[in-house]
Specification:
Largest interface: A-B, 56 and 55 residues
Shape of chain A: globular
Oligomer: homodimer
CATH class of chain A: Alpha Beta
Low-confidence stretches of chain A: none
Strand content of chain A: 35-45%
Structural class of chain A: alpha+beta
Organism (chains A, B): Phormidesmis priestleyi ULC007
Keywords (chains A, B): Monooxygenase, Oxidoreductase
GO molecular function (chains A, B): monooxygenase activity
Strand order of the largest sheet of chain A: 4-5-3-6
Protein name (chains A, B): Antibiotic biosynthesis monooxygenase
Order of helices and strands of chain A: EEEHEEHHHE
Pfam families (chains A, B): ABM
Helix content of chain A: 25-40%
Largest sheet of chain A: 4 strands, antiparallel
């Protein structure tokens, strides 16, 4: 049993009993373009992705060494995720991102978890 | 304000106000070795990692295409994470993992989050 009361705080939950798929998308980028890439991912998420059916969360991570940006995202289903690529408003954001970063989007399920 | 009451459920939380660093470690693996790799990561976590100072969580993800295993892990600090490599009990697990997988461990901070 879990009860969460949250006010003004965005929290993403990783758990094994959630009905969702996880997209972990690693972007390789030159350090001088890392912040621009983050800004482009924020724009794409705010303007389009978060409004698409099945979107659950996006969690953009900035590597300390400047060479990576990783989006840990959750979607309701594989089909919802795949539909992005047939959504012109979504694909319109991809060329600008592709100009400064190589990405490796991969779909996952949670296999094992351990807490301290 | 967040209140979480949890019973018998492991949940990892991603948030921007947590004092921790995130390790996202992508392992590339042949699909026939994917489950063996997951088992090795579980052994290393259960036997050593979870007992080290600063360990917060490990979250092992299995790619649907069989070619990746990704550990989304949280540590209290960079120094706690780096100390792994000077801990013989921890490094003892690495050669077996290295035999079947290439890894790319990268440290991150959470930069942006969006919920549906």
């Amino acid at each position: 049993m879990t009860t969460t009361i949250t006010s003004d705080r965005i929290v993403t939950t990783i758990a094994q009993d959630q009905e969702l798929i996880t997209l972990i998308n690693i972007f390789k980028v030159e350090p001088e373009n890392q912040q621009q890439l983050i800004d482009l991912l924020i724009d794409a998420t705010e303007e389009v992705m978060c409004k698409l059916p099945g979107f659950i969360s996006a969690n953009v991570h900035k590597s300390l060494d400047g060479t990576r940006v990783t989006n840990y995202a959750q979607w309701r289903s594989i089909d919802d995720f795949r539909a992005i690529f047939n959504t012109p408003e979504a694909t319109a954001h991809m060329p600008a991102i592709g100009k400064i970063a190589e990405s490796e989007p991969t779909l996952y399920e949670v296999s094992y978890m351990k807490q301290a």
